[in-house]
Amino acid sequence: MKIFCRLSYSINADRQKGRRGLKIVHLSDTHIGYSAYSKVDEKSGLNQREVDVFNAFKEVVDRILEINPDAVLHSGDLFDSVRPTNRAISFAIEQLVRITDKGIPVVVIAGNHSTPRLQETGSVFRIFEHISGIKPVYKGSYEKIRIGDMAVHAISHCDSETLRENIEMIKIAKDAQYNIMMLHAGVVGLSVFKMDEFNEALIQSSYLRKEFDYIALGHYHGYFEINDNACYAGSTERFSFAEADQKKGFLVVDLKNKRKEFVEIKTREMIDLPIIDASMLNAISLKEEIERVIELQPLDGKIVRLRIKNLRSSLYKTIDFGRIREMTKSALVFDLRYDLIQENMAVQPSTTMLSSLPREFISFLERHPVEGVNKEVIRDLGLEYLNRGLEESD
Ligand SMILES: [Mn+2]
Fold it and tell me: Distance, CA 348 to ligand 1 centroid (Å)?
């Protein structure tokens, strides 16, 4: 905290002369430590998606150093998990210190992905208490941080009710030129701004009070301006197919002129191919449809998903998976999903026809790493056995 005051002082001394406006960088949801799929980066030997997420964050920091803002505000989910790996922690510190070394203070609040049950003692954010220039807010309560002319009212992740109480507690600092609020929460009513995660905090949009010069929101992974003064910066990488079409980057906010600029960074593309409805298809037309959809655009280096719905198990058996693998080998990941139908249950409406056991198996396989064997091969074999079993039990 002492060192933080030193930074505040230097901002006052150097920058107040011309009463120039304050420029802040708002970023969020970096999810450092996230990994997915089984592809490995050849250079580092690490999971490719983990490397992608590192690279995205590093690029954001590169851009921040060019922009040279007065402060950097991170609105939560710095790490992907409550207990990040040593590699994730040291990477995050290394990058954040590049910012603080330039005299730019960083405020980072804990989001729902980084909040253990014992918030004060169990949080990885305690480490940041020892790094000059970084102010971590992680105790599930409201903290006011003064940076030069700016009062930052920061609330780390807590349950919805505590969050509302904390917001109500905030008093605008009259002696500050600018008042900023930082939150990690979804907004009720605007259903799109929820992530549907079990421990997400939600507030009504009326809590995004007009008297703040800016409200730096985190949690929703798309960049979105909720009000003139309240924005989600979004995440810096894509973490699900729901984010396939979203731009990724961060916001530069000029507080004096009330201008916001979204700075986009380059991230790996995710493509959700058009869903194939197999209910009216036969073996030949399904094969043609799969090939048509796969050839719609180049897949090289991308993360690609193809979903087939209403797939009868007899039709499923005609799919040439080897051919599909060959056609899609330039993609980083090709994720083929299907909802299987039990044919002799065809009198029921389609929603109840989706077999839950294959789904359970697929999601189990996704959650558990398999060493030394091809997951897709296991998935296909497993599904085949499951379907055979299901057919026999009918
Ligand atoms: Mn998040």
Answer: 38
- Cα 114 to ligand 1 centroid, rounded to whole Å: 9
Global confidence as pTM = 0.81
Which of these, 197, 220, 1, lies nearest to 205 by C-alpha position?
Answer: 220
The whole-angstrom separation of Cα 272 and Cα 19 is 49
Tokens of 259: 């201008």
Structure tokens at 142: 């409201």
The CATH code of the domain at 2-264 is 3.60.21.10
- Compute, in angstroms, the gap from residue 79 CA to the centroid of ligand 1: 9
Q: How far is the CA of 365 from the centre of ligand 1 (A)?
A: 23
Confidence of residue 16 (pLDDT cuts 50, 70, 90): very low
Instruction: Spell out which residues have Cβ within 5 A of ligand 1, the ion.
Output: 29, 77
In the chain, where the domains are located: 2-264, 270-393
Q: How far is CA 345 from CA 313, 355, 389, in A?
A: 12, 11, 15
**Segment 116-151, tens digit of pLDDT:** 766 556 789 999 999 999 999 999 889 999 999 999
